[in-house]
Amino acid sequence: MEDAGSLSGPGNLRMKIVSVAAGESHTLALTGDGRVHSWGRGTFGRLGTGSEADELFPVPIKFNSAEKSDSEGVKFVGIAAGAYHSVGLAALYDIEMAAVDLNRYIMEMMEQFGAGATISVSFVMAIGENSLVPRLLELFIGLGSPGSLTVGSEMKSKTPLKVKSVKARGMMSLAIDNLGGLWMWGNIPESSSPDKGEFSLVSNFTPVPVWDFHGHTVVKVACGNEHVVALVSHGETYKGRDLVCYSWGNNAHGQLGLGDTEIRLRPEVVKTFNHVSLWEVYEVACGAFHTALLTHKKGPSETLESICWTFGQGDNGQLGHGTTQSISSPEPVKDLPEHRFLVSVDCGLFHTSVVSSAGEVWSWGMEKGLGLCPDARFTGTDAGDATSPFLYGSKFREPVQVACGAAHTVLVTDDGYKLWSWGRGRSGVLGNGKTVDCHTPSTVLWPPLTEDFKELELGNTSREKKFESKDPEEVTEMEKKLSKATEETKFLRSKLSTMERYASLLHSSIFAKPFEENDIPVSLQYSGIFSIAKEWESMLESADRDELVRLEVFYRNMLAGVKDKIMKRRIQEIIKECLPPPATGS
Asked: How far is CA 232 from CA 89, 148, 275, in A?
């Protein structure tokens, strides 16, 4: 890892990931210089690459031209991923430039998609169904905010609307504007139903405002398949410690946290987190039918710690309470350790993940979505689900964010310069070049190989003038050597990446934890000699009781799998011996 000084330069911003988002089978990454990379399943154009092909590694999104991966004047500042669509928040630097880009990317209104710009003009760009490249969601241009309008009134100001943040999940998209107004589009909960007690989703092809928060400021929002949770200021403006939690939509599993399973057509306060609560919510995430929140105590505190609360559907253990029961009121995840500050939380369809400031990652819920080892307390049909938080063996350096797709998880570490992924690997959604499931954290190929050689290409351009004064044959020969060296470097980098993945898998299978650079024994670093027996003995000697118990469970499960396979093969042999030989034709 480079020192902080070298990483702060503009050249490294294109390699620093500031945000990630995960959809049903695709992943997005936003870099510090405003570019978006995508990988995974490409159907419906969700990757924004100009085609519906799957991508096994991160690739930059494209605009109109298949040859072009960037657009002058367009820098993204936010991303979100729904099940089959993507949303990007783009910043344009001046009105003239905005007008040019509007003419270039203007679109017909489409269901589910959008983005906005937060500098001079706000736009929403869409990557999704029927659009293989980003398109502008034009409606936000010139609109007033729900915070500055009343129903049926005219706009009080002609100032263009600025979108501050975007969110998406399932078939729904959300946006918060600069005045704290909330907008929704796609398949959203119907605000009024002719049949009382009946819940339904309505398809809106254009963003509609949520008028219930008029006079307040929406700060954060998240949505599941059929419900929405928002953090809203108690007063007109957000003052830092006055957020109130609201929820609405379908509540069949108690995912609204209101103490019952009755639907809510309009936002309602979650009493556990009202304005007089001792806890303030600072992060919110929604799964298909469950909700997770991060809170800390209001007022001064000697320790910086937080609590994760969950509620809703618990069939696969996604609530982390040690059972598979669903609950309708917020309850803390008690098996998470105390005195930890959790920096990020996210939910997949049926799993939940959190990461602490110290780099500890806990996950719980459906095993096949997480790649977790079965909890030792459960056997039989429950063996595949982790109903309590599962701690990965080693800490990750400088964690930034965790994001959950339908059945995969992505973790940003090393202050944004490294990506990990695990879970379901179909269509290349893990970004490691494979399409198989990964049960332990694997490294995403980041930065992409093309990024490693941009500096070289820039250097080539700067040296062209020097080449002009040289003999043409000499220049041609030099270019050939440089091209050959570049190709050899790319090949070696690819081989190194493969070896790193193999080493990580081998290390995980032996020591039951992800491989990190500091796991390389000192003897191997300097002498090239390594004794796995001595390393294993040393690790057991230094391990505490919890670590030893975890290793015991890990190897017990491996041994059980081997015994089961031997038993099955022996049964097959006995059956084959007992069956009469097939009759031969005359």
From this structure: 21, 16, 10
